[in-house]
Amino acid sequence: MSECAQQRAHQRGFAGAKVALQVNYQSGLQYLRQLCGKGGSGGFVGQLQGYFRFPSRDGMPAYITWAIICCMQNTVPQVINHTELARHIKEWGRALGFQAVGIGDTDLGNAEARLMQWLERGYHGAMDYMAKHGTRRARPAELLPGTLRVISLRMDYRPPHAADAWQVINDGEHAFISRYALGRDYHKVLRNRLEKLAQQIRAAVPEAECRVFTDSAPVMEVELAQRAHLGWRGKHTLLLSRERGSWFFLGEIYINLPLPVDTPGEDHCGSCARCIEICPTQAIVAPYQLDARRCISYLTIELKGSIPLELRPLIGNRIYGCDDCQLVCPWNRFAQVTAEPDFAVRHGLDDIALTELFAWDETTFAERFAGSAIYRIGHEQWLRNIAVALGNAPYSEEVVAALQGRAQHPSPLVHEHVEWALQRQARTGNS
Ligand code: SF4
Ligand code: SF4
Fold first, then answer.
1. If you measure from the C-alpha of residue 143 to the centroid of ligand 2, how many angstroms do you get, rounded to a whole number?
2. In the prediction, which pLDDT does 22 show?
3. Mutation choice for ligand 2 from 268, 272, 326, CB with most ligand atoms inside 8 A
4. Tell me, what's the pLDDT at 69?
5. Which residues are bridge partners to 177 per DSSP?
6. pLDDT of residue 25
7. What's the pLDDT at 49?
8. What is the DSSP string of 110-134?
9. Is 241 in the pocket of ligand 1 (CB under 6 A)?
10. Which CATH architecture has domain 2-71?
């Protein structure tokens, strides 16, 4: 009962619950209230009570009264001590399942200059939203007026028991799906936890104004995380940590309090260039510079239209995202498997035949990907991506038959990619 009460209390954002079994439950409640108030750092928030009935030796029913009290032990003293608050925030963040929590300022001047140059070069491709928000992306206070600090958090996502990534990439008949998308949609998981943390901060300091983000608004999350000491921006442009590599998600909380900041993370890429060398499409055009228009993650997820012909053969069997630059990164030898059940592999997506996925109709797609990030690309784009991978697959009658089965698809986008794939299969079969 105690365990269950603790679990429920945590789910609702309380620090804990205490349970008493008392014949005289009034005295039990009094005792629990005292426990909750102990140390002056918390207080009684609410209670539930009831009784158990059971037969006693003389056959008459007997009762034991129970009570559960929830207490907010995480509250901090009313006079704001920003150093103490920062310490609490980091503790609460880790208790909520984040592996690292850091605090940074909002000075993204250098990153803004880089962003503008990147946009001028057109490296953002069809991601018009990157340009649309202008300077708001690099100036947190323009997104949330009054923002003084950004709390950055990271959460591991590498799923346990997933098939070996290189083995799948090298198996042309199977589909490779980016490791982050094998489980449930991380946006929901992270947003929920970030909201809980924001609630804890607001409960502790009513003056705190916070807003949470997770890849959901014009936020330069990698740069903010670097400023918050969570790592550095690797040459592949993702955040890297010496302790955990790069298999993690990032989330942010913008806040209006002058919390003490952490030291920005330092670059540890050194002379390494493995990510640049391995990239199948040479999308990392220079260290720290990504031409998204060539990146397979962009081509399979962000791009809605036709995939450029010259890039299709380079995509191989990667049907949703690409992890090559992370797979070769030496820092990922320190990556840890996630403990989050939501990020566990679903539907065998870590190693599944392309023809099987290509056979899914729209209803199956919607059912299987309910609650998954993949759902957002839609069935049409999904078929487009698989058609490219089937075109790149070793010749087989099964692959040709699967493609022919979609040759009359009503979508011109799917139709065109299927035609391309059939021609490619025919060329491979004749050679
Ligand atoms: S995700 Fe793939 S395509 Fe994009 S930069 Fe990394 S290796 Fe290149
Ligand atoms: S592969 Fe090497 S260069 Fe690329 S991000 Fe990792 S450490 Fe940096």
1. 31
2. 45
3. 272
4. 54
5. 320
6. 42
7. 61
8. HHHHHHHHHHHTTTTTT-HHHHHTG
9. no
10. 2-Layer Sandwich (3.30)
Name 153's bridge partners.
101, 251
Q: Is 240 in the pocket of ligand 2 (CB under 6 A)?
A: yes
Find the radius of gyration of the CA atoms of the chain.
26
Tell me how far apart the 2 most distant CA atoms of the chain are, in Å.
91
Between CA 409 and CA 44 the distance in angstroms is: 63
Residue 281 beta carbon below 6 angstroms from any ligand 1 atom: yes
Whose alpha carbon is nearest atom 1 of ligand 2?
A: 329
Q: How far apart are CA 144 and CA 257, in angstroms?
A: 13
The answer to whether the CB of 315 is under 6 A from ligand 1 is: no
pLDDT of residue 9: 47
How many angstroms separate the Cα of 378 from the Cα of each of 280, 300, 322, 405? 25, 11, 18, 19
**pTM recorded for the entire structure:** 0.81
Ligand 1 pocket test, candidate residues 281, 282, 289, most atoms within 8 A of CB: 281
Of 105, 215, 267, 351, the active-site residue reads 215
- Residue where the block lists tokens 């070069």: 121
Residue of 295, 320, 328 with the most ligand 1 atoms within 8 Å of its CB, for mutation: 295
Cα of 430 from ligand 1 centre, angstroms: 31
Task: Please indicate whether residue 272, judged by its CB atom, sits closer than 6 Å to ligand 2.
Answer: yes
Ranges of the chain with pLDDT below 70: 1-79
End-to-end Cα, the chain, rounded Å: 69
Q: Is the CB of 238 under 6 A from ligand 1?
A: no
pLDDT score of 291: 98
- Which residues neighbour 230 within 8 Å (Cβ) at sequence distance 6 or greater? 100, 102, 152, 153, 154, 239, 241, 250, 265
Burial per residue of 239-257, b for 16 or more beta-carbon CB atoms within 10 angstroms, e otherwise: bbbeebbbbbbbbbbbbbb
Task: Pick the closest to residue 218 from 368, 87, 85, 108 (CA basis).
Answer: 108
* Predicted pLDDT of residue 134: 75
Determine the distance separating the centroid of ligand 1 and the alpha carbon of 174, expressed in angstroms: 19
**Could you tell me the two tokens for 429?**
């079969």
Pairing of β 149-156 and β 248-255: antiparallel
- What ranges do the domains of the chain cover? 2-71, 82-351
424, 316 Cβ separation under 8 angstroms: no
Strand, helix or coil for residue 191: helix
Ligand 2 contact via 233 beta carbon (within 6 Å): no
Residue 288 corresponds to which tokens in the numbers above? 């720290």
Per the annotation, the verdict on 267 as an active-site residue is no
